[in-house]
Amino acid sequence: MTEQQLPDGWQMVKFGDIAKHISKRVEPSETDLEIYVGLEHLDPDSLKIKRHGVPSDVAGQKLLVKKGQIIFGKRRAYQRKVAVADWDCICSAHAMVLEANPQNVIPEFLPFFMQSDVFMNRAVAVSEGSLSPTIKWKVLERQTFSFPDLAEQRRLLYILAKLEDVLLSSSAATDSLSAFLDKIKTIHTTKPSNGKNWKKIKIKDVFELQRGFDLPTQDRIEGDVTIYGSNGVNGFHNETDVSGPGVITGRSGTIGKVFYTDKEYWPLNTSLYVKDFKGNNPEYVKYFLECMKLERYATGTGVPTLNRNDIHAVTKLWPSKSEQDSIVALLKGVELKIDSLNKHTTSLKNIKKALLNRAA
Known about the structure:
CATH topology of the largest domain: Adenine-n6-DNA-methyltransferase TaqI, Chain A, domain 2
Organism: Maribrevibacterium harenarium
Number of strands: 19
Distance between the termini: 11 Å
Family: Belongs to the type-I restriction system S methylase family.
Shape: elongated
Structural class: alpha+beta
Mean pLDDT: 93
Number of helices: 8
CATH superfamily of the largest domain: DNA methylase specificity domains
Strand content: 15-25%
GO molecular function: DNA binding
Protein name: Type I restriction modification DNA specificity domain-containing protein
Keywords: DNA-binding, Restriction system
């Protein structure tokens, strides 16, 4: 975009004119700071740092970060990781620590601008390297962008800050409800609410697990039948002998994830599926297996493997069918609330994205 094509009050600026690069090195073993932020602690498209480590977790020089400074993931920029520090801390050397140049930009506006597609796409484009593409400050500081004047920054910042507050509240509500779901799921699949409706059983007496079937990629014909492996959906096929409802979990490789479908499906040989529910509620069986923490029963070091006979032999408490139905209704009600919140959050993120792209 040329100067002549810019909206009134906008101008072309070099990134180095609106941002300063801060590169102060710190040895984790020598700092008094208590917080370490790695790229793994940053969520894509979120300015809030929701988790962190401690300096003793890491070795080698890291970067000093002051409260309010921006942590930007310079390695693999396509992950869209940029956040604002809520405290003094140290961070990964694979990040870039930045702060606003207040003469040319409102400090609080800069991180929002960095979340825009225009900035992120440019960051990806100027990254160097194939395995772990990384941005150099000397390259980034020379990049030019169309940028709003201070009055427009203030207007956009007011809207974006309000929207960010609502997003954080929505996200926090989702996190709290998800934690609540995990807790009541565990309670209602392990602790009897009514002892009369529960009995001690071996798992083989209430449902039967079976190894899935081989289906090489070259033999697959595109269709409506979902193929499940140990890690979830693995493709589609045009036929199967396994009807829904179905509960599938990993047998080899990824152990512990549990999947549910009400349609016909193809379980691969890397999975176990419930061949016979023996009159029990399939969705309850799914919740039950999730809470069993199946990875605890895996054997093998290189490629973890789950033996169905080991699971069949486990003794557990088991509720009556009517109690299962009540538990499933409760848990599905919470899941629907979470799904509604997630849709609301997605809608808010889309509004934010549209605003960010107008601001860049």
